[in-house]
Amino acid sequence: MSSHPNLIHMFNGIPFTTRSSTDLLRSLDTFQAREDDLLLVSYPKSGTHWLAEIIKNLYDSKVTLTSPLEFGELSKLEEMKNLPSRRIIPTHLSYNMLPHDLKAKKCKSIYIVRNPKDTAVSLYHYYRDNPNLPTIEAWPAYFNMFMQGEVVCGSWFDHILGWEEHKNDGTILILYYESMKKNLPKSIQKICSFLGLSISDQEINEVSRMSSFNEMKNNVEKENHDPNHTVCALTSNRKLIFRKGAVGDWKNHFSSKQNRLFDEVYKSKMESSALARRIRY
Ligand code: A3P
């Protein structure tokens, strides 16, 4: 991280890329929420694009999917005022950085969690392939950075724990990447209940099909040729997003020593976390 300080800057003790200006981060609390704003929340590389695609398909594209709340310049806050409702707003912000008005208006959030070992691996590849992120060392050095929370958006552990504290507020739906992989229609059904959408089983199966890894990956490939095949625009580097989309890729990266260390840290940091106990991999 320190070799390319220009691509990362610290705010509130958390590393952000230069896609998030300090002015914007400093002014986030002036963001004006609408009661029907829907937040898609995640630690990076947990399946944000997947979730966004599902929501877009559920609403038949009749919603406004924004870029992540924390990306951009100060003018972003003004620009968002002009967007039509319903605004679907992805974010990687920790709970305590979330603009006050979103909390005051009790806006709904869907929080997607992925097992941290696969998240770490996915982020590692993203660092390696993405010119907007600092060049990193080989896996062993990166592994230590991840464990210390010295990666973009900070510590996975803190992100989860901060959001989990609010899981009973009645405004947050928690989804698990691995459960979605296992039975996507069931997760989509949960989303529909949470959002008050009544949709037939046939439509759920169709949304599930349209949101599969292969379908999304193929659509990204087609995008260059066919503007009708667009996938959510959370990033300008969409091709980097669809790597493997698998559960358990961490086994190809973690040494047994790293695995033991990870399990020890996980056990001590996440001891009180009911959410962590539900993560399967
Ligand atoms: P991998 O790098 O392990 O392949 P995000 O959208 O938060 O940046 O997360 C990206 C990760 O989600 C990538 O993981 C990507 O492949 C995976 N992903 C994206 N769409 C998916 C889908 N439809 N099904 C399963 N995984 C998906």
From TrEMBL:
<feature type="domain" description="Sulfotransferase">
    <location>
        <begin position="36"/>
        <end position="272"/>
    </location>
</feature>
<dbReference type="InterPro" id="IPR000863">
    <property type="entry name" value="Sulfotransferase_dom"/>
</dbReference>
<dbReference type="GO" id="GO:0008146">
    <property type="term" value="F:sulfotransferase activity"/>
</dbReference>
<dbReference type="Pfam" id="PF00685">
    <property type="entry name" value="Sulfotransfer_1"/>
</dbReference>
<dbReference type="InterPro" id="IPR027417">
    <property type="entry name" value="P-loop_NTPase"/>
</dbReference>
<comment type="similarity">
    <text>Belongs to the sulfotransferase 1 family.</text>
</comment>
<protein>
    <recommendedName>
        <fullName>Sulfotransferase</fullName>
        <ecNumber>2.8.2.-</ecNumber>
    </recommendedName>
</protein>
<keyword id="KW-0808">Transferase</keyword>
